[in-house]
Write a structure and sequence with these properties.
Length: 654
């Protein structure tokens, strides 16, 4: 089957996931049959779609006409045969019980056309076992959306033992047509990718508390503030529902063995009926204050233990050819909101360190969950990611130069388009930032635009408009830019934006993420989005006010004027204005000076300042912790010695 042959999609199950998937399909232009076993169930799902579409229209993410048209494409149905008899593609989203799902597929086989593809939205159950209930296991796959489907970007596309490649291909194309990012799961393995990482992480958090090795507060503090995940482990369990994670864990335990033995602490919560937020009580009491995670209660031991468990799951997935490391990272970042993927995190922490953590725990406890995967042992000295030669990577819209003095120069290389920023450029820039940050020979980044006409004249409106005025795609593009630019803001080394020429719109938002900005006299800066009926969508509404203050930020955005660099220097945005002739020399000189600074102190300074935007107390705590840490570094000794000897220090980041 080709994507163009899919016209009608049946969604079986009108609960939270079912009606969300139906809404996504309708928004993508498909006719949708939404089915459940009772009229009240299917009507409630339909009403939820109507409410959600209304909210999107209310927020101007859709027009009223588009919302009405999408709702018109959804037909609520109770009769099974009527729901699937004209369906080209069926997505099953009934309760996560193997027997219930098997009954659904047995009945579906009686009514669905021979060409119809069957897809299950299961989050962990065996695709192969479900497919074998049908007469078409080769036309059966997993299509796992994340909750809520309208907002979450990821769709895991899972193969069964019998699934044809063409079925997986068209399912991925369908996910993309719905505005989602598909990640293929190449083997039918419990938990697939995201839950295979998250559920053991939740279980290990519980085991640490059960054994008395840590408290809930210490674990959540380490998870949220030291590792940097969106929520603490117990906070997330409460949010999702402790029973949900527990039942996935039970299934993994049944299929994969004692390495996934559920912690008694989780079992106790389920038995008590204290399932988290939905019951007002779980690991936190939501009737008496709710979640209160301390910012400074974590420890290196807790961090390493959690990271080691995640690394072990990644190693099992890669080693068993379920998915490669980069796709695991993409899936977990999209599906769980991780700021960085678990494989990359493990490489940063050091696989050898995490392997040793597991080995020590295994020797101490004898528990199978700490038995290191063979692939983890194999990669301990090199990491999950190959250390590739940067020259082997081909970019089309950016390039990396190393002019010397430990400076990495990332050049926006679209002079024919005034260095405007396209979706492709965002993707390449993200990779380039990662490469430069990981280069041991680079200690400062200089960001410039090719030529002397523009640093960047903003978003490439023409290329973006070519895709049509799709609100969902626009939201995704905004998030992609925010995340890419945010890498500069949060990277451990100093970043200098060298502004020569136009620095407008998205280009100015990019410059905003640098630590310092130097501009030539011919430069023009501004945020002209309001002239287009837009607003800055790549972080400008948030980051600019931190640099120039709320009043100046509103002036720059609301007037949509262009400002000369001297004015922007008065506003505090530009640190230095230089003549056109000496721009290149001065920009490199500034970056070179920063590259010679103390790397550890620079990294912690950036981290404390960034965290301080969210919470002064959290920023001050990082500052205090960093101050203590720096006292034991070789860099401090070098700085003091150089000061006493009246010479320039030579910091090594040790």
């Amino acid at each position: 089957m080709e994507l163009e042959e899919i016209n009608t999609i049946a969604v079986l199950g009108a609960g939270n996931m079912g009606h969300g998937i139906a809404e996504v399909a309708a928004l993508a232009g498909y006719d949708v049959n939404l089915r459940d076993i009772k009229e009240e169930f299917v009507q409630n799902g339909y009403d939820q779609i109507e409410w959600s579409l209304g909210k999107l229209a209310e927020k101007d993410q859709l027009s009223e006409a588009e919302a009405d048209a999408a709702l018109e494409r959804v037909t609520p149905i109770v009769d099974f045969g009527e729901a699937v008899s004209d369906a080209d593609f069926v997505i099953e989203a009934v309760p996560e019980k193997m027997d219930i799902k098997k009954d659904v597929y047995s009945e579906m086989e009686e009514h669905a056309p021979d060409h119809t593809i069957f897809a299950t939205n299961t989050s962990s159950l065996s695709i192969t076992e479900l497919s074998e209930v049908t007469n078409r296991p080769e036309q059966f796959c997993g299509m796992h959306f994340f909750n809520p489907p309208v907002r979450m970007q990821l769709v895991e596309v899972i193969t069964g033992a019998h699934t044809e490649d063409g079925v997986l291909d068209v399912t991925e194309e369908l996910a993309e047509e719905m505005g989602k990012t598909p990640v293929r799961v190449r083997k039918d393995s419990p938990g697939f990718i995201v839950n295979r990482v998250l559920v053991p992480l939740m279980n290990e958090a519980a085991w640490m508390v059960e054994s008395g090795d840590a408290t809930i507060e210490e674990v959540d503090s380490a998870t949220k503030f030291d590792i940097g995940l969106p929520m603490g482990s117990f906070e997330l369990a409460d949010q999702v529902g402790i029973d949900v994670g527990y039942h996935v864990l039970e299934y993994m335990h049944d299929v994969l063995g004692d390495a996934y033995e559920p912690c008694p602490l989780l079992a106790g919560k389920v038995e008590e009926g204290n399932l988290g937020k939905k019951t007002d009580k779980g690991f936190y009491d939501y009737e008496n204050g709710g979640v209160d995670v301390p910012t400074d209660a974590g420890s290196e031991a807790v961090v390493h233990r959690l990271q080691a468990v995640m690394a072990n799951e990644v190693a099992k997935l890669v080693g068993n050819e379920v998915a490669p490391a980069d796709e695991i990272d993409e899936a977990v970042m999209l599906g769980a909101g991780f700021p960085e993927g678990p494989a990359r995190m493990a490489d940063d922490a050091g696989l050898d360190v995490l392997l040793e953590t597991l080995e020590d725990l295994h020797e101490e406890t004898g528990a199978e969950r700490y038995e290191p995967a063979e692939y983890l042992r194999e990669r301990a000295d090199v990491g999950f990611y190959e250390q590739s030669d940067e020259d082997s990577v081909e970019f089309e819209t950016v390039r990396i130069e190393k002019p010397g003095d430990m400076v990495g120069n990332i050049v926006i290389d679209r002079p024919h388009r005034m260095n405007t920023i396209s979706s492709q450029l965002l993707g390449e820039l993200s990779v380039a930032i990662d490469q430069v940050v990981e280069d041991d020979e680079v200690r400062a980044i200089l960001l410039t635009g090719e030529g002397d006409k523009a640093f960047s004249a903003g978003a490439d409106v023409q290329s973006m408009a070519a895709g049509g005025a799709d609100p969902i795609q626009a939201i995704d593009l905004s998030r992609k830019g925010q995340e890419t630019f945010g890498k500069l803001e949060s990277c451990p080394m100093p970043v200098v934006a060298g502004i020569d020429g136009y620095c407008l719109g998205g280009g100015m938002e990019l410059a905003t993420c640098a630590d310092l900005r130097i501009a030539s006299e011919r430069s023009e800066l501004g945020q002209p989005e309001h002239d287009l009926g837009l607003l800055p969508g790549w972080g400008g509404t948030q980051r600019l006010q931190h640099i120039v203050g709320e009043g100046r930020a509103k002036e720059i955005i609301f007037t949509a004027d262009r400002f000369d660099p001297e004015t922007m220097a008065d506003y505090g945005f530009v640190n230095e204005v230089v003549s056109n002739d000496e721009f290149e020399e001065k920009a490199f000189e500034l970056a070179s000076k920063l590259a010679g600074g103390p790397p550890i102190a620079q990294e912690y300074t950036k981290r404390a300042m960034l965290k301080g935007w969210e919470s002064t107390d959290a920023g001050l705590e990082i500052e205090a912790q960093a101050f203590g840490h720096l006292m034991s570094t070789d860099d401090l000794m070098e700085g003091v010695t150089a000061f006493m000897s009246k010479r320039d220090p030579e910091f090594e980041g040790k």
